[in-house]
Amino acid sequence: MAYIAVTALSHAGLVREHNEDSLVVGPWTLCATVTDSPQTLVFPLGRPLVVAVADGLGGQPAGEVASALVARRLSALGPTLTGPDTLRDALDVCDYEVNTAAEGHPELFTMATTVAGVLVLAESLLVFNVGDSRVYAAGPDGLRRVSVDDSPPPEPGRRTTSAVTQTLGGSRASGTPVPHVSASGLAAGDRYLVCSDGLTDPLPDEEIDAVLRAHDDGRAAFELWKAAIAAGGPDNITLALVRIGAT
């Protein structure tokens, strides 16, 4: 039977006081907390499986509340998602629920989160994102970004920017976000990396690619985390490695 192996971890990094990232792997969620080591979960290929990272918006209140709301809602809706339309509807629901949760609560006003992930179906895979969390395909030809950053171009001389142009939540005045959704085929050996910008800001794609070429699953997740920490760990670090296997 074909299977999906997902190895994930979440860590606060070295600078932030607490973790505002949340993670969903099918029925399993990890909300605004940390893992002591990479965790691997295995699922049969066939039923819809959502794997996603939600990164609470830094500089805004209650980012961890927004990211947890999105992770838990995607986990609950995951088994009902059958294609691009139902996935977009689910992300609209997430945006609505984050904004609704903030109404009447000044301490939650403008809370928001990014999200990025994959929906693995029986014969295809959908990549989705809102904001600057990312999804990469990691194949024999190297690392390839398959999500779309919702960010303005970085300033001259800089590789990254902390600004985002759309999020889930952030108040209704910001408008309804338009998720990026794309489809690809599915084959044994396919491998994807889903991560927050706490990984990609300190590490260039070339370094991420080198780690993924050298290691699989738990060791790769650990080495990516270690490299981000060695680079200063400036933000929360959350990642999930998704591998399609066959027995």
TrEMBL record:
Residue span, PPM-type phosphatase domain: 3-244
**Top-rank lineage group of the source organism:** Bacteria
Region annotation (Disordered) maps to 142-181
Compositional bias (Polar residues) at which positions? 159-169
Which protein is depicted? PPM-type phosphatase domain-containing protein
